[in-house]
Amino acid sequence: VAAKKRPSVIWLHFQECTGCTESMLRAEHPTLEKLILDVISLDYHETLFAAAGHQIEAAREAAMKANAGKYVLVIEGAIPTKDGGIYCKIGGKTAIELTKECAKDAAAVIAIGSCASWGGMPSTDPNPTGAVGANKIITDKPVVTIPGCPPNPYNFLSTVVHFLTFGTLPEIDALGRPKFAYSRLIHENCERRAHFDAGRFAMEFGDDGHRKGYCLYKLGCKGPETYANCPTVLFGDAGGGTWPVGCGHPCIGCTEQGVGFQKPIHLPA
Ligand code: SF4
Ligand code: SF4
Ligand code: F3S
């Protein structure tokens, strides 16, 4: 009996640090090995492929041709648009050209991480390369965005598994984010919320309040204006995983355009 063909996934890297892939490598259920060996057929990924150069580009083109209209396109990294897009080229093609070429016959497009979702770190003011998210280049089909720097791997995996199971993408909000993951404020589910409500704050790192697990708002926490499920889903192994505020660091709003690292953090008085 022939084994069921695994769905093809083409994963592009543009202006990025590969932290999104690193985050995926630390997922535990399923692990990335399980995903790419048993669930999907990862047919192009610059970091995980042994092949390089002409060989890997040929693999991408062959996979796109064989799976036209059926493959999933994942984009990691921002896309530079200034000066004709010359600031990111792979195999002689600009990121803009590759995005358009690969999106044309894709059944679904997922932008993983804040870079691919809205420009992220590379688009930080003054944004010298004109970095934008994938949905500024792909305008004829929906782009699901999984922002975060890095994003939570389970939000990405859940989106992929939803598509593979139902043949449709999960419900998204106006910014393309799956509602199951980005519809609640961090502040609503934070384990330090009782301290916020009672007015108990850490005033500096390592002080008594910080050691006691008090609220990090006065250290610049962006949880009250950041939508994400970090406190409930956690990073890494859900049995022993944690998240930024759980480790004693304020949320920097890494999932939200204009909240976090795109503008200076001014500590409240
Ligand atoms: Fe790296 Fe963050 Fe961009 Fe992902 S979103 S590639 S972790 S800078
Ligand atoms: Fe809200 Fe941040 Fe305080 Fe948590 S640590 S209660 S998210 S302000
Ligand atoms: Fe990012 Fe804040 Fe979650 S910094 S990882 S959105 S807690």
UniProtKB/TrEMBL annotation:
Keywords, alphabetical: 3Fe-4S, 4Fe-4S, Iron, Iron-sulfur, Metal-binding, Oxidoreductase, Signal
Domain Cytochrome-c3 hydrogenase C-terminal as annotated: residue spans: 182-261
Localisation: Cell envelope
A GO molecular-function annotation: ferredoxin hydrogenase activity
Entry GO CC: [Ni-Fe] hydrogenase complex; cell envelope; ferredoxin hydrogenase complex; membrane
Catalytic activity line of the entry: H2 + A = AH2
Residues noted as binding [3Fe-4S] cluster in the record, renumbered to the chain: 230, 251, 254
EC top class, as a word: oxidoreductase
GO BP term, pick one: anaerobic respiration
Family: Belongs to the [NiFe]/[NiFeSe] hydrogenase small subunit family.
Quaternary structure annotation from Swiss-Prot or TrEMBL: Heterodimer of a large and a small subunit.
Protein name: hydrogenase (acceptor)
Taxon lineage: Bacteria, Pseudomonadati, Pseudomonadota, Betaproteobacteria, Rhodocyclales
Residues of the full protein shown: 54 to 322 of 391
